[in-house]
Amino acid sequence: MKHTRAIHIEAFVRDDGLWELDAHLIDTKPFDLSLPSGKLPAGAALHSLWLRLTLDRQFTIVEVEANSEAVPYQGYCNTINPAYETLVGLSLVKGFRHTLKERIGGALGCTHLTELAQILPTAALQAFGGEIDRSADPAAEQRKPPQLDRCHALRSEGAVVAQYYPKWAISPPAAVDKQTHLSNQAISFK
Length: 190
Prior knowledge:
Elements: E1 4-13, E2 19-28, E3 33-35, E4 38-40, E5 45-55, E6 61-70, H1 96-104, H2 111-118, H3 120-128, H4 159-164, H5 178-188
Antiparallel strand pairs: 1-2, 2-5, 3-4, 5-6
């Protein structure tokens, strides 16, 4: 083995009704590692990074805390942690990944904290999706469930949607025979 990256995410409902996601990323090597900043013993964390998001019940970020416990360049890598506070006010489920890259992508953030943030929308939906009371909103019945068209199994043209979400099922387009299609084009030009 050359490397281990472990990601652990826990979700909580707080006493004040807000939701919290605590995400932790740890990178380790099973051998001593020589870095420009010094020697890292086998098994010690190259990265130990935390990201805590507090959300309201509409998945809007109300608080962010980033913490860099272990980084290869202590005193440098960890100085970017406050930049993650710029995520406050964003919806975790509407355009989050795009805006995340704009605000803290590349040299505006930490590669690893930003990667960790990118997986939090899915974790939030897994944790809190069942907490949303769609029956309280009369318009909710008219909105497509948010999980549809986010993966191949839940595509609108697929069997799962046809079986479990028939209201939102779309028949796949009929297969077009290339020869017939070309013949029809030739006829239409006459």
